Predict the 3D structure of the following.
Amino acid sequence: MDIVPLIDRIGEEPTAALFGLITGIVFGVAAQRSRFCLRAATVEFARRMMDSSVAVWLLTFSTALVWVQGASLLGLMRPEDARMMAVTGSWSGAVIGGLLFGVGMVLARGCSGRLLVLAATGNLRSVVSGLIFAVVAQMSLHGWLSPTRDYLARLWMTDGGVNVNLLTAVGVPEWSGLALGALTAILAIYIAQRAGMGSKRLVFASGVGFSVALGWVLTYQLSLAAFEPVTVTSATFSGPSANTLMFFLIPDPVLEFDVGLVPGVVIGAFAASWFAGDFEFQGFENEAIMRRSMFGAVLMGFGAMLAGGCAIGAGVTGGSIFVATAWLALLCMWIGAVVTDALVDQSKGRGAALPAQ
């Protein structure tokens, strides 16, 4: 992939933002049409349903594994060069942050990525919750909550100044990740068939996973061609939401992949909903749900920055390159969400009143 002519034409930073925009558009379209949402999948699992939302999440995750591991085997990207893998990971951050994020996404009725997609389709509840998420994420990264996040993250760190590659730690062959992705895809398709899902939704669910691989490959190729150091990353919505917010608030902002990603998701989701006739303005049903959603957004903002990523960033993007702390964070997100649904919604008979957004 020769991207040098593009860099020479528009520059390195605009190229990074363009790659983020492309990745975001693919993600936005696919996520809107597939109704991808980790919160919906965990709620189905908690209620022993194993229905369409679980199938969508599993297919997204498996597609990301297949494409990313395939790209790695072909030399199109190197997991060890990814930002998530090249820095020290936090086991304590993954556990605490993952649990907080899982609780928050059930309270907010959507994970951070889902909130962004819904905001682009006219859901004003998600606009409010998404803005709170971005502000709290920024506070956790550089603001008042940063010392607390740093303290919790340093309780238990990975050794050697880098994160842990699960495939290497377990000692399995390089192709094991690809095989696991294929097996997970078979399981997802089986659940989808039992749920009576149409093929179109499955295709779009695969598109969400493909967007993760697209981001990895594009940023890795840019890192090879650029003169200045480039962060190898992909779709995630904790850091990018905070960075995009600051891009519009500070003088002399810097263009980067993150700044292109969030607007790309908005553009893609808006276009998909508009042409499908799904765009509709919606608000909070009542004050209690508004308070609940806002509190959930706060927990997600802090939890995501502590865990090293959100449901997409850690759960799919980090998981696709087998970052150990990302897998642990994902597990804790599931645990936090399942327990919260059982204690908050199921115990109060709110199952029917709280559908996936």
